[in-house]
Amino acid sequence: LLQGPVGPFFKHLQDHLEDEGYDVWRVVFNPADHFFANKRDLIKFYGDLSDWEKWFSDFIEAAEVDHVILFGSERPAHRVARAVAAKKGVDLIALEEGYIRPGYITVERGGNNASSPLAGRLPPPALNYHEQPDFPAEDFKGFRRMCSYGGVYYTIRTFCSFGKQKHLFHRHLSAGPELFQWFRNVWRRSTEQSVNFAVIQNLLEHHDRAYYLVPLQVCADSQLQSAALGWSSIQLISATLKSFARSAPAGSRLVFKSHPLGRGHGNHAALIESTARAFGVTDRVDVIHTGSLGLLARHAAGMITINSTSGLSAIYHGVPLLVVGDAFYACPDLVVAGNGNPDFDAFWSCRHVAPKEARRAYLKWIGHEALAVGDFYAPKGVRAACQSVLSKLAERRSAETLAFKTKSAC
Fold first, then answer.
1. Suppose 372 and one of 106, 233, 388, 395 were both cysteines; which one would form an S-S bond, judging by CB atoms 3.0 to 4.6 Å apart?
2. Which of 246, 221, 219, 234 is nearest to 271 (CA)?
3. E strand or H helix at 49
4. Cα angle at 82 between 156 and 392, to 5 degrees?
5. SS3 71
6. Taking Cα atoms as reference points, which of 69, 72, 68, 77 lies closest to residue 30?
7. Residue 335: pLDDT above 50?
8. Under a CB-based contact definition with an 8 Å cutoff, are residues 131 and 368 in contact?
9. Distance between CA atoms of 9 and 355, rounded to whole angstroms?
10. What pLDDT digit, counting tens, does each position of 340-379 carry?
11. How far apart are CA 319 and CA 306, in angstroms?
């Protein structure tokens, strides 16, 4: 086990796997990882990327490691681990927050998001989506625990890490600004909720299918770091507003939706409002910090995203979707793929939507291949997630057993 989600999930996973007979080692990279880990079968690695590649390559070979499990396949240490595991022929399971939420986690072999084995692919023609499970699963209500664990994790990591321990940080944070930004996050949610709900109600009642939705991503999102094809949230805001003012249908609106984890970490609202004013469209642009993204997507005329998994909501609801960067679902049959050079002007009149059965089959396929029931934070969801990871491991063990029996029979 390498780095997991903030909190004790990997500690519980280690216990669960050992109870099932697996021999498990946990590698930690800083004191915050150590704080949430079991103290047995623990390896403290405090080095840089070059040290890590050499050490990890030697370790998985000498220790005869069969599987590597990690959370966040694009973290610097994990990109190295994925390359080493692939070279050594070691099975790697990459975990991530569920592509479809709540109630699901992402469990894939090799990588997630743009590095997913499903990236750019469509389901096989023979897939019978009626046989696949329906969405959604149970909401385990783990958001508050995630925030609490995150506060503890990053506080310990910030104040207790020294020297080379900082080299493998996947997010570089400053304690003072980070604390202020989380306070602002809570404040915005509590003080602007009623105003935002009024804006949403107005959109649904008077602008149904006449507004375009732009879900913003967290600035530290690994997908923005590794697969945005040069785009950032600020660049997206600027390009979208410029094109909207110039080419969008008269009477249409543009709605920016903050990410729940990012609404306190940037002053995008002020930037959006001032830019819209300069372009002469301030009365047609809304900024929302709270509210249901799924509800907004269902009634939108279109959605624009760099590569957020929220794009799956547009696919589900049959809404035209422009993907600016690289995303695992950026298949031309499903979305308008910008490939780093999107045509915003043309998108305002776009009607490109895949047939309902094709969209349904795709989402069912994603659910079957990449998702598992569970949650990384709420106790009930943690138990389900541990069992889901165990099931993924069992798939490989069953395949190996079958291959051995077949070879023996021959």
1. 388
2. 234
3. helix 49-62
4. 90
5. strand
6. 77
7. yes
8. no
9. 39
10. 999 999 999 999 999 999 999 999 999 999 999 999 999 9
11. 16
> What are the backbone dihedrals phi and psi of residue 2, each rounded to the nearest 5 degrees, phi first?
-105, -135
**How far is residue 196's CA from residue 357's CA, in Å, rounded to a whole number?**
34
**Adjacent-strand bridge partners of 95:** 71, 107
d(CA 203, CA 197): 10
Report the alpha-carbon angle 227-228-232, nearest 5. 145
What does the block give as tokens for 280?
Answer: 């002469």
End-to-end CA distance of the chain: 36
Identify whether the C-beta of residue 188 lies closer than 8 Å to the C-beta of residue 289.
yes
Contacts 24+ apart (CB under 8 A), 40-44: 41/14
- Pairing of the two strands 336-337 and 321-323: parallel
Smallest Cα–Cα separation from 343: which of 254, 243, 255? 243
Q: What percent of the chain has pLDDT over 70?
A: 87
Could you tell me if 365 and 260 are in contact, meaning their C-beta atoms sit under 8 angstroms apart?
no
Return the higher-pLDDT residue of 337 and 178: 337
DSSP-assigned letter for residue 254: E
Helix axes 143-160, 175-206, angle to 10 degrees: 150
Tokens of 395: 């798939």
pLDDT, tens digit (0-9, with 9 covering 90-100), for 11-44: 999 999 999 999 999 999 999 999 999 999 999 9
> Residue 13: what residue type?
L
Identity of the residue numbered 290: T
Can you give the pLDDT at residue 136? 64
Query: Which token pair is 286?
Result: 């809304």
Concatenate the DSSP letters of all residues of 27-41 into one string.
EE-SHHHHHTS-SSS
Distance CA 52, CA 46 (A): 9
Token pair listed for 318: 């049959």
The encoded tokens of residue 260 equal 């729940």
117 upstream amide cis, omega within 30 of 0: no
Residue type, position 192, single letter = E
Say what the pLDDT of residue 404 is: 45
> What type of residue is 137?
A
Q: Could you give the C-alpha distances from 209 to 48, 272, 340, 371, in angstroms and in order?
A: 51, 22, 26, 30
3-state secondary structure of 371: strand
CA distance 310 to 216: 10
Amino acid of residue 260: P
